[in-house]
Write a sequence for this structure.
């Protein structure tokens, strides 16, 4: 479904990504883990088209995304739940969710999508008329995820969904991400610093450090790798 092929991205002469290759198959949960500054968010921005590519290519369902303008990538079925949530603070919860439903398919299934989002996040239903800027951090993360679901995506990309959240709220967010994967015909690409949770949930994972991929494999392979245990799992 999604193929990132030998991708390199630079900022001011410094390589943020260096020959990175990642594959996400249809209805597969893929996690990318690594420390701050590893290039995880840059990878997502390259897929979404908000940073220029130095070399390599990104192919989605057989289409080279270099030929597709960034706004049209969302219409192809690529939804991005960004780092820091980035909700529209001066719009209501319902208006934020409506912003996700831009494609013809999403608009045609808006009522069904809204019912699903409210069932997944009842707190959003309770606060549907409330301005997003007045929500707690956890509620804003729920809203960002709901906005992504409203797009009826083929692939849903989560960028650090636990960032800045209390551990109990972060745990609940992870549970909902897993539930979305189980109950929807959607592929998941997750970038996350909470390595144990990310690797436990995924089908396949990649470890990214200083812009380079240093390891990949199934979640069993990565969790049992001695270097991963020592560097990321505190074992």
């Amino acid at each position: 479904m999604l193929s990132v092929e030998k991708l390199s991205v630079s900022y001011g002469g410094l390589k943020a990504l260096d020959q990175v290759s990642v594959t996400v198959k249809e209805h597969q949960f893929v996690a990318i883990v690594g420390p701050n500054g590893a290039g995880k968010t840059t990878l997502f921005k390259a897929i979404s088209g908000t940073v220029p590519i130095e070399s390599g290519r990104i192919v989605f369902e057989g289409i080279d995304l270099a030929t597709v303008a960034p706004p049209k990538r969302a219409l192809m079925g690529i939804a991005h739940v960004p780092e820091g949530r980035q909700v529209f603070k001066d719009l209501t919860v319902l208006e934020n969710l409506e912003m996700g439903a831009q494609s013809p398919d999403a608009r045609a299934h808006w009522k069904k999508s809204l019912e699903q989002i409210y069932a997944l996040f009842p707190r959003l239903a309770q606060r549907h008329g409330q301005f997003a800027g007045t929500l707690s951090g956890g509620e804003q993360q729920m809203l960002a995820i709901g906005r992504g679901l409203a797009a009826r995506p083929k692939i849903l990309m989560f960028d650090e969904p636990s960032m800045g959240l209390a551990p109990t709220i972060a745990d609940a967010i992870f549970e909902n991400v897993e539930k979305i994967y189980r109950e929807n015909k959607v592929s998941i690409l997750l970038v996350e610093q909470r390595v144990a949770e990310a690797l436990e949930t995924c089908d396949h994972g990649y470890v990214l450090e200083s812009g380079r991929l240093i390891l990949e494999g199934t979640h069993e392979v990565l969790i049992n790798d001695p270097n991963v245990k020592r560097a990321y799992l505190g074992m």
About this structure: The chain has a mean pLDDT of 93. The chain is about 40% helix and 25% strand. The radius of gyration is 17 Å.
